[in-house]
Write a structure and sequence with these properties.
Shape: globular
Largest sheet: 5 strands, parallel
Radius of gyration: 18 Å
Strand content: 5-15%
Oligomer: single chain
Strand order of the largest sheet: 2-3-6-1-7
Helix content: 40-55%
Length: 205
């Protein structure tokens, strides 16, 4: 009975403008992916990994998950482009910094973990993270605490985690390029977005 009630809830959400105006398509492959996205957004809280080729709409799917998230007083949707994060700047970008933490830090700055508190953190192309940064991310995902660069106290953060990649992360794990423990933290749910090549009838729409 609970499962049927959930399916009914998913059907009702699928028929709303919030869904129809964001992601376009009516093929069986697309509707199956869309149903999974809607079910995760409305009825689950665990982390989500969205996979698919470039251009399949991974960020739009992440935005939809955030839009349908039923949390009261939900905060921001924060995007971190993992292709632009380098080790030298990752501390400030992810953790933020205190004033005077390094040369040029004339004011304190919130990082992604602080900005996403109460909202959604979207890690775009997470498969591009260097191994050292994967370890730093794993600790925050597990403990939900972080320390700004130059800070002395641990801060708490609570965000919904959505990640995306065009890589086969399971294969990356087997070949030793991506941490297995982080992969399982990111991929509590997996959504695979089909490319237009397998739903050519939707190219014009």
């Amino acid at each position: 009975a609970a499962r049927l009630e959930r399916w009914d809830g998913v059907d009702r959400l699928l028929d709303t403008p919030r869904v129809k105006e964001r992601l376009v398509g009516q093929s069986s492959a697309w509707i199956a992916a869309l149903r999974r996205i809607v079910e995760i957004a409305g009825f689950a809280e665990a982390s989500v990994l969205i996979t698919g080729e470039s251009g399949t709409g991974k960020e739009l799917a992440a935005q939809l998950i955030h839009a349908l998230d039923p949390r009261p007083k939900k905060r921001e949707f924060v995007v971190v482009d993992c292709t632009t994060i380098v080790r030298e700047l990752s501390g400030s970008e992810l953790f933020g910094h205190e004033r005077g933490a390094f040369t040029g830090a004339v004011a304190a700055r919130d990082g992604a973990f602080a900005l996403a508190d109460g909202g959604t953190l979207f890690l775009d192309e997470v498969g591009e993270l260097e191994p050292e940064l994967q370890g730093q991310l794993l600790r925050v995902v597990q403990e939900r605490t972080y320390k700004p660069v130059g800070g002395n106290t641990w801060r708490k953060t609570n965000f919904r985690l959505v990640s995306a990649t065009n890589r086969d992360l399971a294969q990356e794990v087997e070949e030793g390029r991506f941490r297995r423990d982080l992969y399982y933290r990111l991929a509590s749910w997996i959504v695979r977005l089909p490319p237009l090549a397998v739903r050519k009838e939707e190219i014009l729409p």
